[in-house]
Each structure stands twice: as structure tokens, then as C-alpha cells.
Amino acid sequence: MGDPIPDHVPREMVSDFSLFTSPGMQRVSNGDPHGAAARVHAGPPVFYSLHNTRDGRGTWLRTRAKDQRKVLQDPDTFSSNRSIFASALGDDWPLIPLELDPPAHGIFRSLLNPLFSPKRVMALEASIRAQAITIVEKISVSGKSCEVMKDFAIPFTVGVFLQFLGLPNERLDVFVGWAKALLHGDKVQRSAAARSILEFIDELAALRRKEPAGDFMTFVVQAQIDSRLLAENEVRGIGVLLFVAGLDTVAAAIGFDLAHLARNPKDQNLLRSEPERIVLATEELLRAYSTVQMIRVATKDIDFEGAPIRKGDYVCCATMIANRDPAEFEDPNVIDLAREDNCHTAFAAGPHRCLGSHLARREIIIGLEEWLSHIPHFRIKEGTAPITHGGHVFGIENLVLEWS
Ligand code: HEM
Predict the structure, then answer these.
(1) Is residue 85's pLDDT more than 90?
(2) Residue 165, pLDDT above cutoff 60
(3) 2 pLDDT band (50/70/90 cuts)?
(4) Which Pfam families does the UniProt entry name for this protein (predicted)?
(5) d(CA 246, ligand 1 centre) in Å
(6) How many other β-carbons are positioned within 10 Å of the β-carbon of residue 66?
């Protein structure tokens, strides 16, 4: 059950549209959560969506890309301070930098930016590609079909992430299990997964304090702000965020992209015959199959196009809605792999713009390049149907592809 409608919300502004519960958003076979999200553009630019968080809270929902950008670029009015992860454990420390507002946000962001720079990502390119090749070669010799998420997208993205953190691949399955339970499990599974992730990060931080290794966690435990080492909760906030931010998102993007190419042979042929188009096509696929819904908390009362947003209200900026805005994109529901000037917000806008976007892009591009160059023309396996879901991060499962 969600919250009741707050007294200040006019009844005529309440909608039962939700990124969690509307038709197409639940876990369904052959669903189209992006198409379902796009339909809100037929309605008003702002409404109150009941049950629009995992816990069933109501949020204001702004549909237009330009209005979402205003929210995301105004952290004084729309704060990111929520302690979502820690609250599952009865604590209240923030994920860093995600749940910090300026000026603290900028201090941590400057500390972390160099680790995710384009130059740093370029240095990882060869090993990211090597991981992709190892996995797809195994798939291509072992038969004429596979389940993309389990066999390719998840092991590939988790492998890259572990390599980034400087960890061996052997605990891959355990990490994937934690990430899944945290993002999609019920309340009990979520808090058990949160505890496991936290224990793991705490242990890793303690180890790197004793035995520095020149990896990401060593950087974090040795980093200084204002001539002091980071506090324990700050190390946790950074470690845990990195653990959860890059796992599901990249795998989901690869899954939606391969599902699109399986269903659209013309697009698949185009990228096969002209692989140099994959870079541009990736931007269109990121736009059309955006996966992240962001939430902000109003810090003061503010009226917006008749919506009386009150201090403490949640405001949702859903990338999958902004990126199908007809005022911003011509024929937004047409997926045109040659679309140019594609100013999408799949990686957000404003100060919290995705720190890992360069890494994510390279992973997706390399993943598609290696898949297409190793696997012949593929389609959704007859008699199977991919399962999709909406929520805070849209996703796809049971994507069984076959080829001959
Ligand atoms: C396709 C893949 C990805 C998508 C669509 C995505 C999307 C986003 C979005 C929309 C935000 C803003 C969240 C908010 O403001 O509430 C964000 C923030 C963030 N992302 Fe990503 N992300 C992806 C991959 C990654 C990867 C691979 C990493 C790191 C390894 C990463 C690390 C982060 C971090 C640390 C933040 C917080 C930035 C800040 O608060 O300043 N992301 N991401």
C-alpha cells in the first residue's frame, strides 16, 4: 500500500500512472515499458503519480525534458539528500556523491572525476574488449542460442566492474546475486543484500588500509579532503555507490539494445555491414531505451504550472520519459540509429550527471561490436519471450536469442 494522497495535492492532478504499477511496467512477457512511459506525453506536463517508488510513495512527475533539466540543475530547491541505501539498514549516511548536495557534492565529485575520465577509460579499453571477446567466443562455440543477460551482459559488465575495482572475477556470481536482490528483491532480501554489500566494502577498505594495492579502494582510503582522510561512512558511501551504480544499468542497456536488434533485422544488418555506425547508434539506443528514474526532494514550497509542490515532496525526473519528449525529439518513438544532435539525458543532467558515463558508453559500444562480429544474424528464440520491468531502473530478463 502506498501513502494516501497528501492534502495539498489537488485531486484533479492525481494520476494512477506509475513507473512501477502501470500496465507494461510490471514484470511481463514481451512488455514495452518505454512505450508505456512515452504515453504520458499525451497528458499534462506535471501530475502527481501515486505509488511511484519501490515503497509505494507518491511523487510529482514532470514529463517534459526541459522541465526535468530545470529540476536537475537546481539542487538548492530539489535536493538529492535521501540516504536510500543506509535507511534499508536503519542508518542515515549518504551514498557519495549521489545523495550529497552542493557544496559537499562538488568536493567529492572533484576527487572522483579523474578516476572516470575519458583518458582513464581509454586505458581500460583493451582489457574491456578482451573480456567481451572471451565471453562471446565461448557463447559462439557452445551452440546456436543463449540467454543474453545471464550468459553475456551480466558477466561482461560485472567483470569490467570488478576489474575496475581491482578485484578477482571469482566472486562474480555472489556480487550479481547481491546487486539483483538489492535492486529488485523484497524488503527482507533488500536489507540482507545491503548488509552483505556493506560488509564486503568495509572489509575491502580495511584490507586496503593495511595492504595498499594501487586500485580504486586504495585510492579512496588514502584520499584526503581538507587535509584529512575520509571518515568511515564517507569511504562506505563511495564504495557502496560504485558497487550498485554500474552493475544493473549497463547490463540493462546491452539487453534492451540486443533485443531491439533481434526484433529489427534492418537495424541489425546496418550495424553489421557498417560497424562504424555503432557509436552513433549507441546514443539513439541510450535515448530510446533509457533506464533510470531520478528522485529529488523539494527543499521549499514551489508552484509549477499549477502544481503546488510542497517542502518534502518527491519530484521524479524519469529519463525514459524526458527522452521520448516530442518537444525535444522529432518522432521520439521512432528509433533512428542515424539520429544526430541527440541531446538525451540517459545519464542525467546537472551536477549529478553520471560519473561513469564514459565507462558505460565504452562498455556498451564494445559489447555490441564484439557481439555483432562473433554472432551471426540473430533473432528472439521461437517459443520464448523476453520479460521486461519498469521501476527505478528499467530492465529485461529471459532474453533468449538464437542464430543459425
Ligand atoms: C548505461 C549505464 C548507466 C546509466 C544509464 C547511468 C545513469 C545515471 C544517472 C541517470 C545518474 C544520475 C542519478 C541522479 O542524479 O539521481 C547517474 C549517476 C551516477 N552514476 Fe551512472 N549510469 C550508468 C552507468 C554507470 C557506471 C558504469 C558507473 C560507474 C562505474 C556509474 C556511476 C555513477 C555515479 C557514481 C553516479 C553519481 C554521480 C553524482 O552524484 O555526482 N554509472 N548515473
Answers:
(1) no
(2) yes
(3) low
(4) p450
(5) 7
(6) 12
* Mean pLDDT, the chain, integer: 94
- CB of 246 within 6 A of ligand 1: the answer is yes
pLDDT at 284: 98
Across the range 370-389, mean pLDDT stands at 97
How distant is the alpha carbon of residue 28 from its chain centre? Answer: 20
pLDDT in tens, 199-240: 999 999 999 999 998 889 999 999 999 999 999 999 999 999
Domain-located, residue 72: yes
**Looking at the predicted structure, is the pLDDT value of residue 91 above 70?**
yes
Any ligand 1 atom below 6 A from CB of 154: no
> Is residue 1 included in any domain, yes or no?
no
Report residue 168's pLDDT band, with 50, 70 and 90 as the boundaries.
Answer: confident
Domain total for the chain? 1
354 CA → ligand 1 middle, Å: 4
Q: Is 346 in the pocket of ligand 1 (CB under 6 A)?
A: yes
